[in-house]
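Thread: Newbie trying to understand structure tokens

Hi all, I'm a second-year student working on a class project, and my supervisor (Dr. K.) asked me to get a predicted structure for one chain before our next meeting. I've only ever worked with sequences, so writing a 3D structure as a token string is new to me. If someone could post the tokens and maybe explain what I'm looking at, I'd be very grateful. Here's the chain:
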Amino acid sequence: MKKILVVILLLLNTNWGSSQSLKTELIILKNKTVYAQSDALISIPWLEFLRHFKINDTSFFKIVNCTTKKEVPIQLESLGTGYVQHILMAVTIPANAEICLTVLPQKRSVYSSKTYARFVPERKDDFAWENNLVAFRAYGKALETTNENAYGIDFWAKRTDSLVINKWYKSADYHKDHGEGLDYYSVGYTLGAGGIAPYQNDSIWYSPNYISYVVLDNGPLRSSFDLIYPSYLVNGKRISIKKRISIDLSSQLFRNQLFFESELGFDSTFAIGIVRRKDPGAVMMNEQKGVLGYWEPTDKINGTTGIGVVLSDMNNRMSVNNKHYLIRIKPTSNSYVYYSGASWNKAGKILNEEDWFKYLNQYKYQLVNPIQVSFR
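---
Reply by user tm_fold:
Sure, no problem. This is what the structure looks like when written as tokens:
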């Protein structure tokens, strides 16, 4: 009887200690900007998180708002390694405010995915990605042998919070709006909606279409993947390119990270471009902030598209040619990060050029002034 009592006491002490270790510290998030943020995605390195909270089972803990007691959606991001690299948390936080989160040793809810990305072999090697607001695709090698070939990023105009990639590809009828949106954006032999390519001798040197891919993470809050392109010659110099793309829930923009190896070394110049239409639209070109916005001329049937690019730095030059609005950059290493994306007035959230340019400027402001994370 004495032995049984000792075991029970030990178990009680172990459970109490585990519970307390999860509750002794709090996650404090501070939004010091004048903008409220909804579904803001907070990323904390996993090893840093484990220094503050003891997690024995990654499937058996949840995070809740200290005040509202509502559960916070999370994702354990692996970046394709098979091991947790970051914990992602989707939070809503008012302007100039602070919120508190606590970690509890309880089974968390299953969240419906708000992001998705996949290889599409049934459509000539497309690679498509989306969140609950927007969808995009890049073109694969199989398309190069057809009269449909194109270079840049394509945008699918959505007006539903549902994920549509699988449904639209299965129907093969996504050039008509059946109530959820459509693909009416024209790319062709351009950079499309914020594509990137080497720029030499006042010319864009388009790469061949991507030849392989790696999906790194796939929802529910962020999807990320690599697209690998074949090496090719740029003005007689060989270059190899890989693009790492990630899309977060509830964002009009996605993150682009360019990796390259070039015989030009760090003298390489690249152009990020938005295809320019023949009819007049509205344009915002702000070199000082590193923000480029384009509100396209209205399509009488399908509405109006907004395309935008936000740089992670200010090292750029903007210009216009007969096909593009261009941003020229000169990376100081073999990697460069920028953000690009789109909106559609029929989605009902961004209705005109003022709304779109405001969104892009606010995005850059929040990029420079992120939500601060601390532990207490």
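A couple of things are worth pointing out once you decode it. Confidence is low (pLDDT under 50) at residues 1-23. The CA atoms of residues 286 and 292 lie 6 Å apart. Feel free to ask follow-ups in this thread.
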